[in-house]
Amino acid sequence: MRLLLAIILFASPLWPLGRNPIPGDPFIIVNKETNQLAYVDNGKVQATFPVATGKTTALTPEGLFNVTVKAKNPYYRKKNIPGGDPRNPLGTRWIGFDAEGTDGRIYGIHGTNQPSSIGKYISNGCIRMHSRNVEYLFDKAPLGTKVLIVKSKKSFNQLGKEYGALK
């Protein structure tokens, strides 16, 4: 009986968090150990970028998530700052994902009006990128793209293979 259950689980087309990543699908990996993000597509790491993550390890959640919201010139609700305003800390793009049961409007990958923060542990949980880099990612990663966030000494190639995003 256990063997049958194991076969069903491993053969299932669904993961507990949705559809399996398929080598070739867009996939994003964020490594909090190095504050780097990799964009994976067509079974290969296509680009890597420096990012900023949470002030503490706990602030930026770890796990496998899905992109659920995308916005150009996002509105910053906390301080009522419209999109496109130079005071807006979210920059020019928002790629929201469903971490910790949220709807993609709490945790996200976004630009910043503080480019000197990139590479640091400084955010309240989101992942900050330089504007040109998040704009590139925004155009490449459709809704439903998997976002893996880890703190690991493994390479992006190792992580991508482990999670089925790399060939």
UniProtKB/TrEMBL annotation:
**UniProt entry keywords in alphabetical sequence:** Cell shape, Cell wall biogenesis/degradation, Hydrolase, Peptidoglycan synthesis, Transferase
Please verify whether the record's keywords include Cell wall biogenesis/degradation.
yes
Query: Could you name the domain of life of the organism this protein comes from?
Result: Bacteria
> Gene3D superfamilies from the entry?
L,D-transpeptidase catalytic domain-like
Note one Pfam family from the annotation.
YkuD
Q: Which GO terms describe its biological process?
A: cell wall organization; peptidoglycan-protein cross-linking; regulation of cell shape
- Record pathway: Glycan biosynthesis; Cell wall biogenesis; peptidoglycan biosynthesis
Task: Give the matching PROSITE patterns.
Answer: LD_TPASE
GO MF terms, alphabetically ordered: peptidoglycan L,D-transpeptidase activity; transferase activity
InterPro entries tied to this protein: LD-transpeptidase, LD_TPept_cat_dom, Transpep_catalytic_dom
Active-site residue list: H110 (proton donor/acceptor), C126 (nucleophile)
Domain L,D-TPase catalytic positions:
26-150
Which GO terms of the cellular component aspect does the record hold? extracellular region
Q: Record's family?
A: Belongs to the YkuD family.
Which PANTHER family does the record associate with it?
Answer: L,D-TRANSPEPTIDASE (PTHR30582), L,D-TRANSPEPTIDASE YQJB-RELATED (PTHR30582:SF4)
Q: What is this protein called?
A: L,D-transpeptidase
State the organism of origin: Rossellomorea vietnamensis
